[in-house]
Design goal:
The protein has 65 residues and is mostly helical. The protein contains two helices and no strands.
Amino acid sequence: MFGRLSNYFQETKDELVNKVSWPTWTELRESTWIVIVASIILALIIWGMDSGLGTVLTQFYKLFN
């Protein structure tokens, strides 16, 4: 049982150290900025849709009051 567990952790460490392609700090910063900008753009699109639909539905409901 403990041999299998020890082997699992050794193989995990070996894969993370020798087989995984880690990005450089420059690549990581660039990717982070892309994610931040994309998140802001998506949030603005959702906010705009929510505001627009809220206004449309408010006007629609006023027709029936």
